[in-house]
């Protein structure tokens, strides 16, 4: 499986945003997850590839609160499922692309993930993901 | 079918961007389409829901060239497949959300589409889509 795993959208008010995406746009009831390590609450719509994830700061000291303050709400990143994350990271490094993770770190469901800085990916913050459920 | 139809990414150089997404990120060979009415060239990765579409100006007078000049490359919009576009648009209007299309217009493959201004959709430019192949 390769391609779009999910698109992450940054929102200030998770409950209001869920109402928009569920009640107005007709998406299914999302699963709500707290990620304490990143101080965010996430609403995940759907289970397979191509999910929409709404991400909101869990408190005023969340890094995401600072991002919203600086840039407002909006599209945040895309997560791409890649067949070989080490190979993709090596190719990016060879091009001089800045990586936010020098080595893959554990992601959800046993996956391995790494973020690529928008400067190395034509203006898009990209999360690479290999494996996992 | 409801949920994410595609995510559109604005790029200045389509061929270079295709190399990144295909050769580094491992996406399949895209289909390239010219859309003369919007003065863009589009690289479409995959056929089903959850596609990634790279959009580039077809010339210096393309509206997308101006957007890149102003904001740079990056995530542009998400297209959501909705069960009833008229109902979604009525709900948005009732909330005072600004719509870029007052009535749905013809989209690809016999669909009907309408754009919602980011101000009415928590910072995200949203394309609503109903029907089509």
UniProtKB/TrEMBL annotation, chains A, B:
Family statement: Belongs to the methylmalonyl-CoA epimerase family.
Biological processes annotated in GO: L-methylmalonyl-CoA metabolic process
UniProt cross-references to CDD domains, sorted A to Z: MMCE
The species this protein was found in: Anaeromyxobacter dehalogenans (strain ATCC BAA-258 / DSM 21875 / 2CP-1)
Gene Ontology MF terms in the entry: metal ion binding; methylmalonyl-CoA epimerase activity
Pfam families per the UniProt record, alphabetical: Glyoxalase_4
Domain of life: Bacteria
Domain VOC: start-end pairs: 3-131
Name of the molecule in the record: Methylmalonyl-CoA epimerase
UniProt keywords, alphabetically: Metal-binding
